[in-house]
Amino acid sequence: MLHAFAKQVPQGAIDRAVIENVSRRHLLKGVAAAGGLVLAAPLARGANAATAPAYGTGAGAMPHGVVIDPRIFVSIAPDGIVTIVAHRAEMGTGVRTSLPMIVADELEADWARVRVVEAEGNETKYGNQDTDGSRSTRHYLVPMRQMGAAARTMLEEAAAQKWNVKADEVKAANHEVVHAASGRRMGYGELAADAAKLPVPKLDTLRLKDESQFKYMGKGNIPIVDLHDITTGRAIYGADIRLPEMKYAVLVRPPVVGGKLVSFDAKDALAVPGVEQVIEAQGWPWPSKFQPLGGVAIIARNTGAAIKGRDALKVVWEDGANAKYDSEAYRAELEAAVRKPGLVVRNEGDVDAALKSADKVIVGEYYLPHLAHVSMEPPAAVADVTDNKAEIWAPVQSPGGTHEDIAKTLGLKPEAVTIHVTLLGGGFGRKSKCDYAIEAALLSRKLKAPVRVQWTREDDIHHDFFHTVSAERIEAGIDKSGKVIAWRHRSAAPSFMSSFKPDVKNESAIELGMGLVDLPFAIPNIRCENPEAAAHTRIGWFRSVSNVPHAFAVQTMVAEIAQALGRDPKDMLLEMIGPARIVDVGKSTKDWWNYGEPFESYPVDAGRLRRVTELAAEKGEWGRKVPQGHGLGIAAHRSFVSYIATVIEIAVDDKGNISIPRVDTAVDCGTYVNPERIRSQMEGAAIMGISLAKHGEITFKNGRVQQGNFDDFPVARIDEAPAVINVHITPGENRPPSGIGEPGVPPFAPALCNAIFAATGKRIRRLPIGNQLA
Amino acid sequence: MIKLTVNGEAHSWDGDPSLPLLWYLRDESGLTGTKYGCGQALCGACTVHVGGQAVRACITAMEDVKDQKVVTIEGLHPTGDHPVQKAWRELQVPQCGYCQTGQIMQAAALLADNHHPTDHQIREQMAGNICRCGCYTRIEAAIRLASTGV
């Protein structure tokens, strides 16, 4: 795999990175500044089949690939403090802890003496930093281990030279190197300076730890590094940055995507105490990737004054081409689209003939609306821009992309732009798009002062990059023996590619690969079709993306088939998954995407999907007797190359109110690093699943979003939470690591609705459930 | 001039008396542990204590806290070791952490009022505080833990 990394790292990147490291040393307080930086020579790259786990990943194919250089990521001060750089954004998954923990484990560092610093956005230096796609652990487990092992080896070598013994006679353990024969020992801090003079070992000479020696990896014994700060209010998010002379801004943006400002009257706004200026904010025509929508900015001495000023502002807009976007009409359009043939995106056997010959054809039509991300922290960013330099503080999932987009927008060289990545108060895909940081940068330049831009909740909901809206239609043909012989799934949904270029009508390979064309079922005749759907608003990716509608349709359909045949839904699901085998999706589809991973390392493995289904059923005591008004539902789905199955017990009262006594989720994410955070991600996925199943719906009328806050776009609250969420993680068994942030979400809503059917006999085919049970 | 006490310190404000306390705390006073989430008392991220009661700072005007004692997350406990804070850490409640200061302030007020709440009371009292990451089962467990003393 490593040669795959090597070709992605531009020659010269390392030299440049070193220069960067020195010039930005103030960002690594106590690290480079302490003078004890250990690692001095470039780490050679090469194939490493003997010592590294033998699997490839798609990491090298990401923009800027992977940088495996411990000098960039690890440093040791003379006092022994080990500083490890976290280069991915922390939005609640625990990645800021998990990745450094991998380094620390291989380094034999004592976690109590490890400090974590957040990298600025700079992919030339750190490699790809896009924190989305549930990629961090799967792309960085091996590189982080290698960097830790390289540093450990150098410390051992330094000690061996000092004691004039062979390197294999000494051993690093718990922050010191020990020569067992003589009983001599030296701490990492004492060895750091000498280790720094040694060449960095080649990757293929590194001795990685045996799994049995892990102290942190796989254990779940390390709390997140920000835990104390979070519980005391000291954790710093995007809007918590305060600079001297900083201005506070809110904006009013065109209510319809593609619309623009005609005029504004600022008289009343300027009369509001604390309001200082009202100025036009630059916008870009739609679609323009992540560029700001433009509008008017209200500048004030504090955010409260700016909001009040905005309320008093009079603005005239021109709405543009999307002014007719109407969710009710669009739903009818999508539903009509999936009743007609569309672009064939997977074809296996002869679906038409099989459906014709089938004894029974079952049809399921499903609809899932737009969703807003509504992370608890609405977008916010601080910028300090002068003529030749920009410094940004922002909660972004895309530190590197933000770096590039800001530089490009301001016309500055990348090295003149610094992106400080704060903690993210949730992201869920929204904060992959840095429009709010660009807004702050543009305003700061215009005002010649530091500016904080705060989005209100209404801004967040009105101007999101929305989760797509989709209609799904599945026809399943059953033969006389009760076997499913045909499966035609049509999915119509506007693509997030529509935010990048005009006139996109079909789902991208990425979206199609999320639970549509990668269907792992043992059915001889399968056809997936993608009828056209045009976008009329900004579409973006939302946690687990197209897996949400695709899995909802597929996993509901399985239960519908079970119902029609009088079969147990779990047995039906296992029968449709079929025997343990690798499903060669590529043979019947051109347009598919395996989450960017090589199929050899990350195949579509029906056996693993079976195993989590069986595990969830076993642990969730599938088939147990439940009280009147209760029901059990099950669903299983592969996404982000992980396998998740969920069993939910639901209770529905006579008024149609839902409560959830118990959830059992089985997870196969291959080799894992932090099982404690895997559990928390699965717990969170359950809550997000409840939100989107029960409540979530963004609608448009006259091109405008009709919701604006948590009153009309409700999300699950604590009194709707399951009483118990059990998470069952399968042993890693040296399988490549796979995603965790997202894959818990897709099976949840169908499992919930299947449970509702078991409890009430009511089949939910349209989300949200809303008052459908009343 | 509005005088008030924040975390035991004397404060005064001579600006717009209708300014929400939230923005006074965050932008004028630098107490950024109190978070903005909705501006309409729908999410609880801005929960602080006024006279010992949990209130939403986003809809509480400065004129309404005249001569009042305001406590924010920064002042909940001098070393951050309020039983609720300790329980939160013990059970590793937070994910992104953004809403957690509001959750903790709400939970602290709940426990001050009712030392041993039932599960139903916990859910009822905490239902005004949204956590989009979905830490609810741990929030509930942490409040139970705090109520028994950590």
Layout of secondary structure:
The complex is a heterodimer of chains A (774) and B (150).
Chain A lengths: L1 H7 L4 H11 L46 H4 E3 L5 E5 L8 H13 L6 E5 L4 H4 L9 H28 L6 E4 L2 E4 L4 E4 H9 L30 H6 L14 E6 L7 E6 L1 H4 L4 E7 L13 E6 L2 H10 L1 E5 L8 H11 L5 E6 L2 H7 L2 E9 L11 E7 L2 E6 L4 H12 L6 E5 L13 H13 L3 E4 L2 H6 L7 E9 L5 E9 L16 H4 L12 E6 L16 H19 L3 H9 L4 E2 L20 E2 H14 L10 E10 L2 E11 L5 E11 L6 H20 L5 E2 L2 E2 L19 E5 L18 H13 L14
Parallel strand pairs in A: 2-3, 7-17, 15-16, 19-20, 25-28
Antiparallel strand pairs in A: 1-2, 4-5, 5-6, 7-10, 8-11, 9-10, 12-20, 13-18, 14-15, 14-17, 18-19, 21-22, 23-24, 24-25, 26-27
Helix pairs in contact in A: 4-6, 6-7, 13-14, 17-18, 17-21, 18-19, 20-21
Chain B lengths: L1 E5 L2 E5 L7 H8 L18 E4 L2 E4 L12 E3 L11 H8 L9 H14 L5 H8 L9 H12 L3
Parallel strand pairs in B: 1-5
Antiparallel strand pairs in B: 1-2, 3-4, 3-5
Helix pairs in contact in B: 2-5
Characterize the structure shown:
- The complex is a heterodimer of chains A (about 775) and B (about 150).
- Chain A is built from 21 helices and 28 strands.
- By secondary structure, chain A is of the alpha+beta class.
- In chain A, the strands form eight sheets. Chain A has a seven-stranded mixed sheet with strand order 9-10-7-17-14-15-16, sandwiched between helices. In chain A, strands 12-20-19-18-13 form a five-stranded mixed sheet, with helices on both faces. A four-stranded mixed sheet of chain A has the order 23-24-25-28.
- Chain A is globular.
- The termini of chain A are far apart.
- The model of chain A is unreliable at about 1-50 (pLDDT under 50).
- By secondary structure, chain B is of the alpha+beta class.
- Chain B contains five helices and five strands, in the order E-E-H-E-E-E-H-H-H-H.
- In chain B, a hairpin with a 2-residue loop joins strand 3 and strand 4 (about 55).
- In chain B, helix 2 packs across helix 5 (about 135-145).
- The longest helix of chain B is centred in the last third of the chain and has 14 residues, at about 100-115.
- The N and C termini of chain B lie far apart (about 40 Å).
- Chains A and B meet through helix 8, helix 10 and helix 20 of A and helix 1, helix 2, helix 3, helix 4 and helix 5 of B.
